[in-house]
Design brief:
Length: 381
């Protein structure tokens, strides 16, 4: 009898796991609190790296589908001074090994690859309890329950499964993102579109930054980053979009209007996204029948690796379960030890964040990008 697997959360980690298990003929059910796959926006662009995210895609046997989703030119990068001066402008030469895709499209690719009924929507977990012998009971807010011998928490920062394994609780980093969108920007917001260029834009000062990226269909997706306490944001009425955008924009007084327009001209209400993190190297002792993947396991500051590592978690766990039929504990032990090793140290993206808010952020970022270019293997070397 094949191992039944219960996955909590239909994000990239949980869906990658479900797909890899399906490839290996192992049935799984994914329980997701959201009522449907279109219940909310799925975030912006992701650069999928050749050393983690793309390895996960290969394990799903969906590489051709993945390539069809990638957007050309989006690896281009511009760094601007607050007055709008272009300080650094790197074109996308296609050699970065980090093709860009939209998160929502990547998620849809994984959903479409699963048998009907694999994902159970509108199933919000209320509690989880151990039954002994590696089995667990999951209770849902609709009053139903399910029993499982393999329970995987792929349910993000505020995981309901994590307390079975760890007492760790996410802590606020001191930074928050405010998310905005400008649609049909080339026609409707030409100055902002010109500033962003064909890929991504970074304009930063010591404790604040405007980061934007061009998505499909001339959409500009912006993350405004501010180093402020949660109480500061609590004083802003985000139910009044215009007032909230104006208040956020005031933190950038004196900046070029084509940059502040990314805030004030938003075609969607600004969305506050406080940044929380678990301790770097978060780990736990082996508990029979249960494990964690993605942000539930190693929530970190946005560093370009989160989605990539989450997908690799799902792929590696799926392969471990397939490699140890009938021996769940061997599979979970193998997976966790490899994951703990992989996530034990800060990522290279952490260095990027340090430069983003240093004493001279633009120059530090330029130095970082130039250094990365110089380290690339040269043709014929």
């Amino acid at each position: 009898m094949q191992t039944p697997v219960t996955i909590i959360g239909a994000g990239l980690a949980g869906l990658t796991l479900a797909r890899v298990l399906h490839v290996h003929g192992i049935p799984a059910t994914v329980y997701e609190a959201e009522p449907s796959p279109t219940a909310r926006a799925q975030g912006g662009m992701l650069d999928i790296h050749d050393y983690n995210g793309q390895l996960a895609v290969e394990a799903t046997c969906l590489m051709d589908e993945f390539r069809s989703l990638t957007l050309e030119g989006r690896q281009a990068t511009r760094i601007l001074a607050p007055d709008g001066t272009v300080l650094f402008d790197k074109a996308d030469d296609g050699a970065g090994g980090r093709p860009e895709v939209q998160r929502g499209e990547l998620r849809r690719m994984l959903l479409d690859s699963l048998p009907p009924g694999t994902v159970q929507w509108g199933r919000k977990v209320s509690s989880v309890r151990a039954l002994g012998g590696g089995r667990h009971e999951v209770s849902f807010t609709d009053g139903t329950t399910t029993l499982t011998s393999v329970l995987v928490g792929a349910d993000g920062a505020w995981s309901r499964v994590r307390p079975l394994l760890s007492d760790a609780v996410p802590e606020y980093t001191g930074e928050s993102f405010v998310e905005t969108y400008l649609y049909d920007a080339d026609e409707r917001h030409p100055a902002a579109a010109k500033a962003v260029g064909g890929g991504s834009l970074i304009a930063s000062a010591q404790d604040r930054s405007i980061n934007a990226q061009r998505e499909r269909g001339a959409t500009l997706h912006t993350y405004v980053v501010l180093t402020k306490g949660l109480d500061w944001f609590a004083a802003i009425d985000f139910t009044d979009p215009d007032a909230a955008a104006a208040r956020i924009a005031r933190e950038f007084d004196g900046w070029a209007p084509e940059l502040t327009a990314l805030i004030t001209d938003s075609d969607t209400p600004p969305v506050l996204r406080p940044i929380f993190t678990l301790p770097i190297g978060h780990r736990w002792d082996r508990v029979a029948g249960v494990t964690l993947v993605g942000d539930a396991a190693h929530l970190s500051t946005p560093d370009g690796e989160g989605a990539n590592n989450a997908m690799l978690d799902g792929a590696e766990l799926g392969k471990a379960l397939a490699a140890h039929p009938g021996n769940i504990e061997a599979a979970l032990t193998e997976f966790e030890q490899a994951m703990f090793t992989r996530t034990a140290e800060p990522t290279s993206g952490t260095e990027f964040l340090e430069h983003l808010f240093g004493d001279n952020p633009p120059q530090h970022l330029i130095d970082l990008f130039i250094g990365a270019e110089q380290q690339k293997p040269q043709l014929g070397s």
